[in-house]
């Protein structure tokens, strides 16, 4: 066991994933194996008379900008008020340094009891025994029947047979559209059953002019790099098998060709020109744009009453008979295997992720993942923006969104995919040549990381 951990950690260190030593991690892992998990821990605690009134101290770590930190801090203080026996030490930082903190905590064997986590941050730690498998807890409380969280949210934290975090909030992608521009051309608005062809036809009809005054059909920004890695269900690489999956993958080729053709046709700018524009959908120069929930407040304040707009789900692709799968940015909460108060830690996690009061407060940072609240009138009809956009769109997109990897060797592969795609867009190579290079270099990256 220690040998396996040592090999893994040395590879991780070479990739900048972690600074922990094999010996320290092995000690942490060996110690964690003596802990009870899931229902066994809960059942024994209850059998012994319960620990709900015994004093409990928990350290909880999370990240965010100023507003998000204040919101999460207030939630934890509320939990303390409702549970007088629980004392919570809060540890927080900005998102840019949180990953380094995770590495430091796990390398030192002093990780907080409860951790905020993202779906793409678990990968380096999932086999080290430092994060608790929450599946037994969820099963014991009957939370995996689809009525607590959408299955895709649970899947984003599922690795093999383990579920390493409870989903908390998420951000998915949708299409914003300028109603005024659609009205001028007499084009029907996007709808929940629109197709990829509908999107392309509208984008072509609404593209006009030249140069800096050009009106573009759609703004894709940097999102094609998220889309084509797993746009229709067959991903560019297989994480569990640690191998590439781009060669002879019709879905990957189709997606890369689609976005490349959209640039060449002139209905969307390439990444370089897009960044030079310095602005986007809010200017009125884009009939449509790929957007996320975090864009809503900014768009609302910048657009004002300049034009009418709304959002709709990503379109349906008739070739592969599936909607476009947008990238899923999922946040969750987990507990470390070394946590000494697992029952109390799980109760807090459950409250944060599956109670209406906590999820209502968390909606300021993303789309609530607790299904009964996310689909309620209380959430769908309450706005902090003056424009009452279709909130249900982002809720509906959850089931058609997929998570991804953005750390370690996977980050290297993602960068390589983007590089070769941009070369194809520029006409330097064909899509087939880009795919061959991605497969070759991706395979080399994976072999070097072994």
From TrEMBL:
<comment type="similarity">
    <text>Belongs to the bacterial solute-binding protein 1 family.</text>
</comment>
<dbReference type="GO" id="GO:1901982">
    <property type="term" value="F:maltose binding"/>
</dbReference>
<dbReference type="GO" id="GO:0055052">
    <property type="term" value="C:ATP-binding cassette (ABC) transporter complex, substrate-binding subunit-containing"/>
</dbReference>
<feature type="region of interest" description="Disordered">
    <location>
        <begin position="30"/>
        <end position="53"/>
    </location>
</feature>
<dbReference type="GO" id="GO:0042956">
    <property type="term" value="P:maltodextrin transmembrane transport"/>
</dbReference>
<feature type="signal peptide">
    <location>
        <begin position="1"/>
        <end position="21"/>
    </location>
</feature>
<feature type="compositionally biased region" description="Polar residues">
    <location>
        <begin position="30"/>
        <end position="45"/>
    </location>
</feature>
<keyword id="KW-0732">Signal</keyword>
<dbReference type="GO" id="GO:0015768">
    <property type="term" value="P:maltose transport"/>
</dbReference>
<protein>
    <submittedName>
        <fullName>Sugar ABC transporter substrate-binding protein</fullName>
    </submittedName>
</protein>
<keyword id="KW-0813">Transport</keyword>
<dbReference type="InterPro" id="IPR006059">
    <property type="entry name" value="SBP"/>
</dbReference>
<dbReference type="Pfam" id="PF01547">
    <property type="entry name" value="SBP_bac_1"/>
</dbReference>
């Amino acid at each position: 066991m220690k040998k396996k951990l040592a090999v893994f950690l040395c590879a991780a260190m070479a990739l900048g994933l972690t600074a922990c030593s094999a010996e320290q991690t092995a000690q942490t892992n060996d110690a964690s194996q003596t802990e009870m998990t899931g229902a066994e821990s809960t059942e024994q605690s209850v059998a012994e008379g319960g620990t709900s009134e015994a004093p409990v101290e928990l350290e909880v770590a999370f990240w965010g900008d100023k507003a998000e930190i204040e919101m999460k801090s207030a939630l934890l203080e509320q939990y303390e008020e409702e549970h007088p026996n629980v004392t919570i030490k809060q540890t927080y930082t900005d998102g840019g340094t949180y990953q380094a903190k995770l590495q430091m905590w796990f390398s030192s064997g002093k990780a907080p009891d409860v951790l905020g986590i993202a779906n793409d941050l678990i990968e380096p730690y999932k086999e080290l025994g430092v994060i608790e498998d929450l599946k037994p807890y969820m099963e014991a409380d009957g939370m995996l029947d689809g009525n607590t969280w959408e299955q895709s949210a649970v899947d984003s934290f599922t690795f093999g047979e383990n579920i390493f975090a409870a989903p908390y909030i998420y951000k998915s992608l949708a299409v914003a559209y300028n109603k005024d521009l659609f009205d001028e051309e007499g084009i029907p608005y996007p709808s929940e059953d629109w197709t990829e062809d509908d999107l392309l036809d509208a984008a072509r009809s609404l593209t006009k002019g030249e140069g800096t005054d050009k009106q573009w059909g759609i703004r894709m920004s940097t999102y094609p790099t998220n889309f084509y890695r797993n746009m229709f269900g067959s991903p560019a690489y297989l994480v569990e098998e640690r191998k590439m999956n781009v060669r002879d993958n019709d879905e990957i080729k189709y997606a890369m060709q689609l976005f490349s053709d959209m640039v060449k046709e002139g209905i969307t700018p390439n990444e370089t020109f897009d960044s030079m524009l310095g602005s986007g959908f809010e200017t009125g120069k884009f009939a449509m744009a790929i957007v996320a929930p975090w864009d809503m407040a900014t768009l609302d304040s910048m657009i004002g009453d300049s034009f009418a707009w709304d959002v709709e789900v990503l379109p349906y692709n008739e070739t592969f008979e599936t909607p476009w799968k947008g990238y899923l940015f999922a946040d969750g909460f987990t507990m470390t295997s070394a946590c000494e108060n697992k029952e109390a830690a799980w109760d807090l996690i459950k409250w944060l992720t599956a109670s209406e009061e906590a999820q209502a407060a968390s909606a300021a940072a993303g789309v609530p993942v607790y299904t009964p609240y996310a689909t309620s009138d209380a959430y769908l009809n309450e706005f902090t923006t003056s424009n009452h956009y279709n909130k249900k769109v982002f809720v509906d997109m959850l089931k058609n969104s997929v998570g991804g990897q953005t750390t370690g060797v996977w980050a290297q592969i993602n960068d390589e995919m983007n590089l070769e795609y941009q070369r194809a867009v520029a006409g330097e190579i064909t899509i087939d040549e880009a795919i061959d290079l991605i497969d070759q270099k991706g395979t080399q990256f994976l072999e070097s990381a072994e």
